[in-house]
Amino acid sequence: VGFFGHLATALSSGMPFGPLHFIVAVEMLVIVSGFAMLRRKQRHIAKCAFLLVMNGLIAPVPFYFFISPAFYLGALPSLIVATSINVIVTILVIPFVLKATTRLGGHSNA
Fold it and tell me: Is the terminal CB of the chain with fewer CB neighbours within 10 Å at N or C?
C-alpha cells in the first residue's frame, strides 16, 4: 500500500522529484510494513515512534545527498509536523477501519 500509494500520489502531482520517487516508494513500503508489524505485536507507542522517526527524519536522508543538505534541513520541520498529524490521524482511524473490515466479513491487517 505504501509503495503504490506514494507512486500514485507522485504521478498525479507530476513526479516533481523524478526517479527519486522510486526511492521514496520503497521507503514507504518499509515504513508501512514496520508499522503494521509493530501494530500486530501491540507495540502501540513503538509503532508511533517508528512512524515519526522513520518518516520524519530517516526517509528524507537521500535528499540530503541527491539534492542538498540545505533542502534536507529545510524540509525537516514540515515533515515532522506532517508526520505528527499523520500519526494522530492514524491512531484515530485504525479502530474504524478494523470495525468496518470485520463487519464486511473480512479480516484486517490495519
Answer: N
